[in-house]
Specification:
137 residues, mainly alpha, Arc Repressor Mutant, subunit A, 6 helices
């Protein structure tokens, strides 16, 4: 059995913590957490999807995503709108403020990605992405 500091779980957790710290540093002043930024990214790609669709795409469980949506709605960045074909569902839609934030936050997110991947060669980046895709499911 490997030492804890060389175990996969420990190293993945530390990489995640480092990434979150970098996002928090870049997003200082925006009152946006890394998970909220992730949800906004999905909505910037496709606005007006249901909470279930957003949960499936982001792979965030329904309970957790509900809290994230609540906080983003309280911040005025998105709204729940009744689904036209399903009375039990809501569409999650960006507000004007949520759409405008894309222009400000995307370059910051790109900078975080650059900083995270800076120690790696292009081949290592591709290998990392491939491995993470395999481990995702």
């Amino acid at each position: 059995m490997p030492d804890i500091d060389t175990s996969v779980g420990f190293l993945l957790a530390k990489a995640y913590q480092r990434a979150c710290a970098l996002y928090k540093e870049e997003f200082e002043g925006y009152d946006i957490t890394p998970p909220q930024f992730g949800l906004l990214r999905f909505l910037w790609e496709e606005d007006g999807i249901t909470q279930v669709e957003l949960s499936n795409r982001s792979q965030i469980d329904r309970t957790t995503i509900g809290g994230l949506i609540d906080r983003l709605e309280q911040s005025g960045l998105l709204k729940r709108r009744p689904h036209p074909d399903d009375r039990r569902a809501y569409l999650i839609c960006l507000t004007e403020a949520g759409r405008k934030l894309e222009q400000e936050l995307m370059p910051l997110g790109d900078e975080v990605q650059r900083r995270i991947l800076a120690p790696l060669t292009p081949d290592e980046v591709q290998a990392l992405l491939s491995i993470l895709q395999k481990l995702r499911y």
